[in-house]
Design a protein that fits this description.
InterPro entries: CdaR-like_regulators, PucR_C-HTH_dom, PucR_C-HTH_sf, PucR_dom. This is PucR family transcriptional regulator. Pfam families: HTH_30, PucR. It comes from Streptomyces lydicus. By secondary structure, the chain is an alpha+beta fold. The chain folds into 4 domains: 127 residues, HprK N-terminal domain-like (Udp-n-acetylmuramoylalanyl-d-glutamate--2,6- Diaminopimelate Ligase, Chain: A, domain 1); 125 residues, Beta-Lactamase (2-Layer Sandwich); 139 residues, no CATH class; 93 residues, Arc Repressor Mutant, subunit A (Orthogonal Bundle), CATH 1.10.10.2840. It is built from 16 helices and 21 strands. A 6-stranded antiparallel β-sheet has the order 9-8-13-12-11-10, sandwiched between helices. Strands 14, 17, 18, 19, 20 and 21 form a 6-stranded mixed β-sheet that branches. α4 runs parallel beside α7 and α12 crosses α16.
């Protein structure tokens, strides 16, 4: 089931994006922008990004959640007087709402002195927030304000995830750890948490008791992930989905199968009821599911290697650096693998783990680091939770927070050969020592994006050789040059990411769009914006080479600081 839309007035044609939203009210409150809402609903309007278009029908280029900006140039093409204009604007507003746009911004000057009254009426009719953009405010200023607010919201989100991660790990080390983890989880997701058997029996809970309808739905979800029913979730083999969700009025339910067992060897599930407008709650719950799998798993079922991996997990979650847990991991060199299951395959994560030589019953979490180098949060692999042991070796090291398309992330001993696997797309890092695992995790993620964009079954990250062109320039000089060259993009991470992907994929619009998960026309708009900000010709091979060198210098600098 899907979550209710974040903007009640505009039914979305596509799911909301994963980026933190920016309340429209926050933009309206900025005096430097001078924006003024003149039509449409005012409560609960959330902006995810900005798109500018002067097309009569911008719908094919909208992804949902945008503030669509226009100066009304397309209105000049309408003939037939006021009735024709009213009809045209009514259709324009209706199509914009149907495409999932969150709001419409209309720029005053140079085309129109005021917002057409017919547009105001149309937006009121269709429930589309309409914002007047004054003549002194360029559209780029609005776009910059949104990106700045998104970045700040993302930072707050990562800080929250980091705090929750540490609290959950600390709870796992207390007496009666399962109950302590449930209490910590309920506090950080601001909801209800419970351990349920497949028959609905409760083996511990915390947080405000939900209404009967939510409690009944929680029992059904526990049955689904327990293997006794079907449902919408992330299927991980014949035993049933390892996670499932349900949306109820005022609550988003998520259930996660645990590898541990309850009394009488009953299968257990972690069920969480949280605010439907709180995406980080799912990521936090995933961390708790990993810990509860370790806590409830019988110690006798795990060998010494798995026990060491479990200890490494807790130490990493508490804040230890990878080098500090190296003795617990055993092997001196490790490879990070990111894998995404193809739609046409029914292959389970367990079968992939067997092929890779890694076990999934002791998930190992790798911290996600911020640009400042601090632990910022972690995701959990829904493919790795609730899966029986599949072999010897290392374990999953995390995943994304999206239930519909989970990414399995695994640690594999560096001496094992990794080959393409039927039904899976793989991104593989170079073998690295334990202290370089965070960088290897990023490299594997990049390799997976390239593999998906190229429709290749496997792409490996290749570290530059010691005698490459980078060795001819002092690291400090290269870093200073890169920062100066890319300074106009420093406050726009999406533009830097787009440029990095576009150059790495040889300027392919389609493959870059696939890699970033955006429309190809959005890629074109961003690249055009980048060329303007850098005041350069991106069709020039020399320019591309210099920019790529600069981006790689920043990559190496970020890796070194971590």
């Amino acid at each position: 089931m899907t979550s209710p839309p974040s903007t009640p007035a505009a039914p979305r044609a596509t799911p909301p994006p994963s980026t933190p939203p920016v309340p429209l009210a926050e933009l309206l409150a900025r005096t430097d922008l001078g924006l003024r809402q003149i039509a449409g609903p005012r409560e609960g309007v959330a902006i995810h990004w900005v798109h500018t278009s002067e097309m009569a029908d911008p719908v094919p280029y909208l992804l949902g959640g945008e503030m669509l900006l226009t100066a009304g140039m397309h209105l000049a093409e309408v003939t037939g007087g006021a009735p024709a204009l009213e009809s045209y604007l009514d259709g324009y507003a209706a199509r914009t709402v149907a495409a999932g746009a969150a709001a419409l911004g209309f720029g005053i000057a140079p085309v129109h002195d005021t917002v057409p009254a017919a547009l105001v009426a149309a937006c009121d009719r269709h429930g589309l927030p309409l914002v007047e953009v004054p003549a002194g405010t360029p559209f780029t200023a609005v776009e910059s304000a949104v990106w700045q607010a998104v970045t700040e919201a993302r930072h707050r989100e990562l800080t929250r995830l980091s705090e929750a991660q540490r609290a959950l790990a600390a709870a796992a080390a207390r007496p009666d750890p399962a109950a302590a983890v449930l209490r910590a989880l309920a506090r950080h997701v601001r909801g209800w948490t419970a351990l349920l058997a497949a028959d609905g029996t409760e083996h511990g809970s915390s947080g405000p008791r939900p209404v009967d309808a939510v409690r009944a739905a929680a029992g059904r979800l526990a049955q689904v992930v327990g293997g006794d029913g079907g449902g919408a979730g992330t299927r991980d083999g014949a035993g049933g989905p390892s996670s499932a969700t349900d949306a109820l009025p005022g609550a988003q339910l998520s259930a996660y199968a645990l590898t541990g067992r309850g009394p009488g060897r009953q299968a257990l599930a972690l069920v969480v009821a949280a605010d439907p407008h709180d995406p980080p709650a799912h990521t936090i719950a995933g961390v708790a599911a990993v810990l509860l799998s370790l806590i409830t798993g019988p110690a006798g079922d795990r060998g010494p290697a798995a026990t060491g991996h479990a200890a490494a997990l807790v130490r990493l979650l508490v804040g230890a650096r990878p080098a500090e847990v190296a003795p617990l991991l055993g092997a001196p060199v490790w490879t990070v693998v990111h894998a995404e299951r193809r739609r046409e395959t029914a292959g389970s994560a367990a079968s992939l783990a067997t092929a890779l030589g890694t076990a999934l019953d002791t998930p190992l979490i790798a911290p996600t680091l911020t640009a400042e180098g601090t632990t910022a949060g972690v995701g959990t692999s829904s493919a790795g939770v609730g899966t029986p042991s599949a072999g010897a070796g290392a374990s999953t090291i995390g995943a994304g927070a999206s239930l519909p398309a989970p990414v399995l992330r695994a640690l594999v001993p560096g001496d094992l050969e990794i080959t393409a696997q039927p039904g899976w797309t793989l991104g593989v890092s170079a073998p690295v020592p334990v202290e370089e695992l965070p960088a290897a995790d990023r490299h594997a993620a990049t390799a997976l994006r390239r593999a998906l964009a190229q429709r290749a079954p496997l792409v490996r990250h290749r570290a530059p050789g010691p005698h490459g062109i980078a060795s001819l320039v002092a690291a400090d000089d290269a870093r200073q040059h890169a920062r100066a060259l890319l300074a106009p993009l420093a406050d726009s991470p999406p533009l830097l990411d787009t440029l990095h992907n576009w150059l790495s994929l040889h300027g392919s619009w389609d493959r870059t769009a696939t890699s970033l998960g955006i429309h190809r026309n959005t890629v074109r708009q961003r690249i055009s914006r980048i060329a303007t900000l850098l005041d350069t010709d991106l069709d020039d091979a020399d320019v591309r080479m210099e920019l790529w060198f600069a981006l790689r210098s920043l990559d190496r600098d970020a890796t070194a600081r971590r």
